[in-house]
């Protein structure tokens, strides 16, 4: 805990331009936002095999000193053990509420992103398979893509999402955004004036949804219906990311010019 944060701390994710998918991009951006809010510098390193390098098989993961930690929850705990916390100022009731909203985001937005990527046939064929397998030669590219698709579909079946239509999934996203919009209200952050890990998580997912070009705009339109959520994303982008060097920022593609996932 007494060790200072090293200057060479690194965050690993898949290749930004041609490989990374919506859900992993959102998760990576959430971790970057959290570390920015803690004022802890991190270098973003893109690797084709980042998913296979990760101890949990999920991205992003951070390499700090001799420690490797993946995903936002464990990274928050790791950073807290080093003496940095965004939610120390909250009371127990607020902490419980924050955790409940983080569960909501993971259960609704992250699951919807995975569903869209791997269960919507048009998106799978036009975006997911070409991007996911892009670093690898044929037939490995297809084998790895189908393997991942089978994994995600098995998860969807386990949580009762396999039988959902795209319209039902988009309705879930809308309900999640409605709940987040109600909680945020006119505050700058979800717990008033200081950001917490909930703000980092929500920003990661909403900003990525708003700035990612998919087959249709239906997903981003659900977020755009809530002006306080889009203003929230702009505020965090301006406060924590603008002025960063292009490669150290996940926001190289600005919302003005939507980055293409094709």
From TrEMBL:
<comment type="subunit">
    <text>Interacts with MTX1/metaxin-1. Associates with the mitochondrial contact site and cristae organizing system (MICOS) complex, composed of at least MICOS10/MIC10, CHCHD3/MIC19, CHCHD6/MIC25, APOOL/MIC27, IMMT/MIC60, APOO/MIC23/MIC26 and QIL1/MIC13. This complex was also known under the names MINOS or MitOS complex. The MICOS complex associates with mitochondrial outer membrane proteins SAMM50, MTX1 and MTX2 (together described as components of the mitochondrial outer membrane sorting assembly machinery (SAM) complex) and DNAJC11, mitochondrial inner membrane protein TMEM11 and with HSPA9.</text>
</comment>
<dbReference type="InterPro" id="IPR019564">
    <property type="entry name" value="Sam37/metaxin_N"/>
</dbReference>
<dbReference type="GO" id="GO:0015031">
    <property type="term" value="P:protein transport"/>
</dbReference>
<dbReference type="InterPro" id="IPR033468">
    <property type="entry name" value="Metaxin_GST"/>
</dbReference>
<keyword id="KW-0653">Protein transport</keyword>
<dbReference type="InterPro" id="IPR040079">
    <property type="entry name" value="Glutathione_S-Trfase"/>
</dbReference>
<dbReference type="InterPro" id="IPR050931">
    <property type="entry name" value="Mito_Protein_Transport_Metaxin"/>
</dbReference>
<comment type="function">
    <text>Involved in transport of proteins into the mitochondrion.</text>
</comment>
<keyword id="KW-0496">Mitochondrion</keyword>
<dbReference type="InterPro" id="IPR036282">
    <property type="entry name" value="Glutathione-S-Trfase_C_sf"/>
</dbReference>
<dbReference type="GO" id="GO:0001401">
    <property type="term" value="C:SAM complex"/>
</dbReference>
<feature type="domain" description="Mitochondrial outer membrane transport complex Sam37/metaxin N-terminal">
    <location>
        <begin position="28"/>
        <end position="148"/>
    </location>
</feature>
<dbReference type="Pfam" id="PF10568">
    <property type="entry name" value="Tom37"/>
</dbReference>
<keyword id="KW-1000">Mitochondrion outer membrane</keyword>
<keyword id="KW-0472">Membrane</keyword>
<keyword id="KW-0813">Transport</keyword>
<comment type="similarity">
    <text>Belongs to the metaxin family.</text>
</comment>
<protein>
    <recommendedName>
        <fullName>Metaxin-2</fullName>
    </recommendedName>
</protein>
<feature type="domain" description="Metaxin glutathione S-transferase">
    <location>
        <begin position="174"/>
        <end position="236"/>
    </location>
</feature>
<keyword id="KW-0007">Acetylation</keyword>
<dbReference type="Pfam" id="PF17171">
    <property type="entry name" value="GST_C_6"/>
</dbReference>
<dbReference type="GO" id="GO:0007005">
    <property type="term" value="P:mitochondrion organization"/>
</dbReference>
């Amino acid at each position: 805990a007494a060790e200072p944060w090293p200057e060479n701390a690194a965050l690993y994710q898949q290749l930004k331009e041609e490989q990374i998918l919506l859900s992993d991009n959102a998760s990576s951006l959430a971790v970057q936002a959290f570390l920015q809010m803690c004022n802890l510098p991190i270098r973003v390193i893109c690797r084709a095999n980042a998913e296979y390098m990760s101890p949990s098989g999920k991205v992003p993961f951070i390499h700090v000193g001799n420690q490797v930690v993946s995903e936002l929850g464990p990274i928050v705990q790791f950073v807290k053990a080093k003496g940095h916390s965004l939610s120390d100022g909250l009371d127990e009731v607020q902490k419980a509420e924050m955790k409940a909203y983080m569960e909501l985001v993971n259960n609704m937005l992250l699951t919807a992103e995975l569903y869209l990527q791997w269960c919507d046939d048009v998106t799978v064929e036009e975006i997911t398979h070409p991007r996911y397998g892009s670093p690898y030669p044929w037939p490995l590219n297809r084998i790895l893509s189908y393997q991942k698709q089978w994994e995600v579909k098995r998860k969807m079946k386990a949580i009762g999402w396999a039988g959902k239509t795209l319209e039902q999934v988009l309705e879930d996203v809308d309900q999640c955004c409605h709940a987040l919009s109600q909680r945020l209200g006119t505050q700058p952050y979800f717990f008033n004036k200081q950001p917490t890990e909930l703000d980092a998580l929500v920003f990661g997912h909403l900003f990525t949804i708003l700035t990612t070009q998919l087959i249709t705009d239906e997903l981003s339109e659900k977020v755009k219906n809530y002006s306080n959520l889009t203003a929230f994303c702009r505020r965090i982008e301006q406060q924590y990311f603008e002025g960063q060097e292009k490669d150290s920022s996940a926001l190289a593609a600005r919302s003005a010019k939507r980055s293409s996932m094709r």
